Amino acid sequence: EGDGVIGNIYSTGLALQVLGATREFYAPREWDCGQAFSMVSSHDYQQPTAIAQVLPALLGMSYLDAAGLDCPAVSLVLCPPCPFVPPPPGAPIMVHYSITNKLQGKHFSYSISLEVPAGSTLLQVLQAAEEEKPDIFSFQTEQTSWGPMVVSIHGLAANPDDRTYWQFLSGGDALQEGVGTYKPWDGEHIQAVFSTY
User: For the Transcobalamin-like C-terminal domain, which residue ranges apply (predicted)?
Assistant: First the structure.
């Protein structure tokens, strides 16, 4: 991508590991490694899996280097635990949320506008929509190593056999983060579209 992202913000860490570990085995195309490193180092990763994929590249290593580490020689500096101070609640923002199915069964399209605290995750927006109109905006998630994944909305479940899933979009572009970490901005329109891959 033109912004240094290789695939998406989550796959870029793995791509950096691969490109770094294999550079002596092939003549790589020219790519702006500094731009890719800048993108991953400036992103606020939340899930341990995402952090685990990008951290080796930021340290100039890859997973392949793990076999050669001398663990007893590594010293860890542990700091005393810091008291947790929850952030103050954010001022309310307005998020527009819609769900659309034009793929299977009875087609539908519903929209709602919700006021949520600034800093709310998309999952919290979905919960607020379900609380306000449970007969329309009900949803189910499954926990993955990347956080919660929406598997059903309005009673319509994703199905790997049919290659269907719920895709989340903003401004027509797929979100690069999951519902558990993505934080909508004031006035944003989030679309959940039943899609196929």
Answer: 119-191
